[in-house]
Write a structure and sequence with these properties.
Elements lengths: L4 H7 L5 E4 L5 H5 L7 E5 L1 H9 L6 E4 L2 E2 L2 E2 L10 E7 L6 H11 L5 E7 L5 H7 L4 E7 L3 E6 L2 H13 L2
Parallel strand pairs: 2-3, 2-8, 3-7, 6-7
Antiparallel strand pairs: 1-9, 4-5, 8-9
Helix pairs in contact: 5-6
């Protein structure tokens, strides 16, 4: 499914609470987590930042790029369940949705490496995430978005997915 131009502006609005870059520290982030939150990070920098804080995501989705520039994958000492999928820029492929669903039933922590671009995968992640999930992703040049998965968020992201072509 491709992202129509008509949806681009709508997707610039954060799905959750935007924490300015200057305040995106461990103590601020921990205030949004409950004891057994299923933490999901979308984006290389966001994933790397949470790991550096000792907040190991149950699922991290990366594409080894930051602002379209190739980068080295984050080094880590965790053994991840490794998954991969193809997802071109400005699209959400059926394969990526299947892989996300697989990630949610895999042994955690899971690292899903996307060949292409991971940005829009926040949408199917919010639809299929387990109860008690917190999704984090970067808002370019602004900060960190924290989304608590609720029925309202699931409905909103399902509507966005339905509007894709």
């Amino acid at each position: 499914m491709k992202l129509p131009d008509s949806l681009r502006d709508q997707l610039k609005t954060p799905l959750g609470q935007l924490i300015p870059e200057s305040q995106a520290n461990k103590s601020t982030i921990q205030k949004h987590l409950t004891k057994n939150s299923y933490l999901i990070t979308v984006g290389d920098r966001t994933s790397e930042k949470m790991v550096s804080f000792g907040l190991i995501p149950s699922l991290q989705i990366i594409d080894n790029q930051e602002k379209r520039i190739k980068r080295e994958p984050a080094k880590n000492d965790k053994s991840y369940t490794e998954l991969v999928c193809d997802n071109p820029a400005a699209e959400i492929t059926p394969q990526s949705i299947v892989t996300i669903k697989k990630a949610f039933v895999s042994k955690t922590p899971v690292r899903l490496t996307v060949s292409g671009e991971e940005d829009l995968l926040v949408i199917p992640v919010c639809i299929h995430a387990p109860e008690n999930s917190i999704v984090m992703y970067g808002q370019p040049n602004e900060g960190l978005v924290i989304v608590k998965i609720t029925p309202e968020i699931r409905n909103k992201t399902q509507r966005l997915l339905d509007l894709m072509e």
